[in-house]
Write a structure and sequence with these properties.
The protein is 49% helix and 18% strand. By secondary structure, it is of the alpha+beta class. It folds into three domains: 77 residues, Beta-Lactamase (2-Layer Sandwich); 142 residues, Alpha-Beta Plaits, CATH 3.30.70; 72 residues. α6 packs across α7 and α9 runs antiparallel to α10. The longest helix is centred in the C-terminal third of the chain and has 33 residues.
């Protein structure tokens, strides 16, 4: 068995709080359990011996993550490691210190049946204009921005939340049990920390948030959050100093407030609230219509200006 393990370049395993296998990148459960026994992983779980340990010519790394106050153990085997040289862990992004796209894909692929229902909200954060920063000021400056945003996220979320660096300038956070006002406070806290840390870099981010009932609805929530993030980015690209832009932001804020209030009322599920829900729904429709018309008008203005139609006047 050990010989087979050494023949593998790597092995990635997830265990639940009781040490049962949730996921294994290679081999069946019997083979995985044999490996865990031979590499003393079960003994290390009992003693809390986390970190990197040599195992023959390989290394076995063990870390613990918390999902809704439940422990999950992340085990990685890296085979044929040169003496004194350890490779980066497959599930961690080395620059940000957050979990990476690999970890996200593992979760999505396996649906984490043991922890379904532990999350109900998804937040996406995107660094504004990072590509332009990389092109104009160099990737070293862009890397600083990534680290600042990552640190701000880590310092703002709770232990039971999970944050990922999803892409070059994009981050995803899975949350649970937060009310709308608490989610807004979290978003504000992340922005405040970014502002505190980026005095010389002027870092700005866009955000989108959406809720879901279970993992089957997670990808739909991802798309909704991504759409909201995109809408915020588009708003920022419009004329910042214009009166209509400020009015657009005010409408967006009003729209979010009505939607949050409506969601809270729907959650109460009381018959006497039907009239209130209907009234708020109508108000939300009206605000969305005004917002859409104004956004279309401003986008048309920008498009015409780019085409050189300077003879057209705008009110």
């Amino acid at each position: 068995m050990i010989g087979n393990m050494y023949g593998m370049k790597s092995r990635f395993i997830l265990l639940d709080k009781d040490g049962k296998v949730v996921y294994g990148s290679q081999g069946n459960k019997d083979e995985i359990n044999a490996f865990l026994e031979e590499s003393h992983v079960y003994d290390r779980i009992k003693t809390g011996d986390f970190g990197i340990k040599k195992w023959g010519d390989s290394q076995v790394t063990m870390e613990r993550i918390f999902v809704n106050n439940q422990s999950l153990y992340v085990i990685e085997l890296i085979a044929d490691v040169q003496a004194g040289r350890f490779s980066s862990m497959a599930y961690k992004d080395m620059m940000s210190g957050l979990y990476n796209r690999n970890m996200w894909e593992y979760m999505m692929h396996n649906k984490f049946t043991e922890v379904q229902g532990c999350f109900d909200t998804l937040m996406i954060i995107d660094i504004d204009n990072l590509k332009e920063v990389n092109d104009s000021e160099g990737h070293a400056v862009g890397d600083i921005q990534i680290r600042i945003v990552s640190e701000s996220i880590k310092e703002s979320i709770r232990e039971e939340d999970i944050a990922f660096r999803y892409g070059g300038d994009e981050f995803v956070i899975l949350l649970n049990g937060l009310k709308n006002k608490d989610i807004q406070k979290l978003m504000d806290r992340i922005r405040e920390k970014i502002n505190e840390k980026s005095k010389d870099h002027g870092i700005h981010v866009s955000m989108g948030v959406s809720s879901f009932d279970n993992f089957s609805g997670l990808m739909g929530a991802f798309q909704k959050a991504d759409n909201l993030l995109y809408a915020e980015k588009q708003c920022k690209k419009l004329q910042v100093g214009s009166k209509k832009y400020k009015e657009l932001l005010k409408l967006r804020k009003n729209m979010d407030e009505i939607r949050n209030h409506l969601n809270d009322l729907m959650g109460e599920n009381k018959d006497h609230l039907n009239e209130d829900v209907l009234g708020l729904s109508r108000e939300l429709d009206h605000v969305i219509y005004r917002y859409s018309m104004m956004e279309i008008g401003l986008k048309s203005k920008e498009l015409l200006k780019k085409q050189g139609n300077s003879n057209i006047k705008y009110k």
